[in-house]
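In this section we walk through a basic example: taking a raw amino acid sequence and producing a predicted 3D structure, encoded as C-alpha cells. The instruction is simple. Fold the sequence below.
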Amino acid sequence: MNHLIRSFLARSGTAGGRCIPLALIVVCLLFLLAGCLEHKGKHREKADRPKKAMPVTIGLSAVKNVPVALSAIGTVEPFATVAIKSQITGILKKVHFQEGDDVKKGDLLFTLDERPFIAQLNQARGTLARDRAELENARKEQKRYSLAAGKGYVSSEQEDTAATRVATLGATVQADEAAVENSRLQLEFCSIVAPIDGRTGELLVTAGNLIKANGDTAMVTLNQITPIKVSFTVPAKNLPEIKKYQAAESLQVQLPGVKGDPLTGAFSFFDNRIDSSTGTVLLKATFANIGQDLWPGQFVDVQLVLTTRPGAVVVPSQAIQVRQDGAHIYVVHDDMTVEDRPVTTAMIVDKETVVEKGLVGGEKVVTEGQLQLTDGTKVQDRKRQVSENSKEHTSGKREGQGKS
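The resulting C-alpha cell sequence is shown next.
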C-alpha cells in the first residue's frame, strides 16, 4: 500500500502544481482505507479468538427433608439458681471449695465456728434436765395431795395448787425441749451445704469474717447448668400454629451453630400471657448440656421446629441472588455455560435455602463469582482448576527431579 502511494505522488508531481491538492485528497483517502482494513482485520481476529471461561465456585442442589421452623434469638439461663446465705450469725471458720468448682447436692461449702452454738445446746439440755426433774417431783406431790384430799387431810385448794404446778412444769419442759431442738438446729446451720447440683460462682467471703444471718450479700451463688434452659420469644401471630404442633407433641427446639451438629432440646414452657409492648410470647426449652456448650447469659440462635417438610429442594444460601424482580440462580449446564434462572424461595435452614419453584435436585449452581456473569457466560470451577494446577505442578516437579 505504501509503495502505491509513493508511486502516485511521483507521477502527480510531474503534472504541475495544479494537481497537488487533488493528490493530497487521494492520499488521505488511501490512508483512511488502509486504517479501516487494518481495524477490520484486528476485529475479526478478536472475534475468532475463543472467550475465556470465568472462574466460579460451583455447588449442587439437593433434595432433603427440611424442618419447618420459627427462628428467634434466645438467652441461656441456669436451670436453677441459689444464692447461698447463712441462717445464723457467726465467724466463718472454713471454705470447702474453690471458685468455679462443680458441686453436688449435700456437699459441704462453708463451716462456721460451732463453739458458741455447742455451749447454747448444752445449756438448753441442762435446763431441760432440771425442769424434767422438777416436773417429776411435782407429779409425786400431786399424787400425795390427791390421796390426802380423799381422806380429808388437805383442802381441795391445796390439791388444785399441786395440779397447777404439774401443768406449769409440763409446759416449761415442752419449752425446754423446743429450746434444745432450736439450739441443735443452730449448731447444724454452722455447716452450710449445697442445696442443688451446680457450679459455684465468685466467692464473696473468706475465712475469719463475721457472717450475718440472712445478710444482704450472698456468700456464693450456685448455678445449675446441667441441664440448662434457653428462653426466647416468638410473635403472637404464630401462637395458633405452635399450639397445634404442641398438641401433636412434635415441637422441638434446636440451636444451630453452637458446636458441631445442632443441639436439640425439649420444649418446656409456654408463658400464660402475651407481652403487649412487643406483641410476643415467652417460650423456654430445656437442654441436657452434657458437654457444657451452653453458658448462662449466652445469646444463641434458636430454631423452634414445628414439623418436617419432606423432599424439599435446597441450595447453598450464597447461590441465591436477590434482585428487584425477585430471586435468581445461575444454573451451570453440561457445556459449562450458565443460565440466569428466576426461582421462588422459601425459608433458610442452616445456611441452606429451600427453593419452591424453578430448580430440581442435582443441578449445578454457582455459589461464588456471580457478579461477573450474564446469561450464557462460559465458566470453570475454581476448585477443579486449582486441583488440576496442583497436579501439573507436582508432575513438573517430579520430572525436574528425575532429570537432575
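Looking at the output, two observations stand out. Confidence is low (pLDDT under 50) at residues 14-19. DSSP finds six helices and 19 strands in the chain. In the next section we compare this with other chains.
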